[in-house]
Amino acid sequence: MAKLVECVPNFSEGIRQEVIDALAAAVRSVPGVILLDYSADPNHNRSVFTLMGTPAEAGEAAFLAAKKAVELIDLTKHRGEHPRMGAVDVIPFVPVSNITMEECVALSRQVAQKIAAELGIPAILYEESASAPHRKNLADIRRGEFEGLADKLKQPQWQPDYGQPVAHPTAGAVAVGARMPLVAYNINLNTSDLNIANSIAKIIREKSGGLKYVKSIGVMLEERNIAQVSINMTNYEQTPLYRVFELVKVEARRYGVSILGSEIVGLAPMNALVDSARYYLQLENFDAGKQVLENCLLPGNSDE
């Protein structure tokens, strides 16, 4: 069976549909690659793509999309709620089928080197690909964002893994790595007070002593005039979605605030949602492998 890898590049554009469509076209131009999903958020001014293919296919699609992003995105004119340091901000590779994490790490290095050499964008390896422990966490790499990148790259501890220690004038830098599946999960609050969202984000995130495998920040959704707790869950098996939701609800209540709703950005593993269904419905003796219809339709799962 073919080796399959998932790639989830994030681009610093969530408003101009023609640019988002051009990025999608670049991904689709690679034979064999499947563009599973792409979504854009105008408040974050960011789009998230999910594509799948063999290592060679996924790597080429990520590179061509990065090349298109350099052509069409100018970070000197970019404004959005989500932190960013690059036109193509982050490129993670995720093992899916018949491929190891080590192979995804090797792929991430190949793509990072090609982006630096051919596009002139300094590349920093992160997560499982990180060249040093302090470079593993994406938030640490991105801290200071595009505006502070020129000074940051001059520091010995933040020299890029590939490319010169000079930010691309309009495309910044890129973080490339390999990681396990991540769930991008946002919770919207019925308040316009960003300080409340920031306070809750600090409480729930692992780095501040909160829930393990949780990264979070507070952002403002200007169009809706509400604050959001924007979350990346790096291991939904160890810290499930419902646990994060319940903790945010409890903390929001301290401020007299409630949850308006939540959203998942891009694709999420089915078990991440099944776990929440099991919890909230208090399902007894539930077997997702046998009782979820779609699971029964997968090859090898049917008794017939």
Describe the structure.
The chain has 304 residues and is of the alpha+beta class. It folds into two domains: 4-178, Formiminotransferase-cyclodeaminase, Chain B, domain 1 (2-Layer Sandwich), CATH 3.30.990.10; 183-268, Alpha-Beta Plaits (2-Layer Sandwich). It is 34% helix and 24% strand. It has helices spanning 17-28, 55-72, 101-119, 138-142, 149-152, 194-204, 241-253, 270-280, 288-291, 293-297; strands at 4-7, 10-11, 34-41, 46-53, 88-97, 123-127, 174-178, 183-189, 214-221, 226-233, 259-265. Strands 1, 2, 3, 4, 5, 6 and 7 form a seven-stranded mixed β-sheet that branches. A four-stranded antiparallel β-sheet has the order 9-10-8-11, covered by helices on one side. Helix 1 runs antiparallel to helix 2 (55-72) and helix 2 packs parallel to helix 3. The protein is globular, with a radius of gyration of 20 Å.
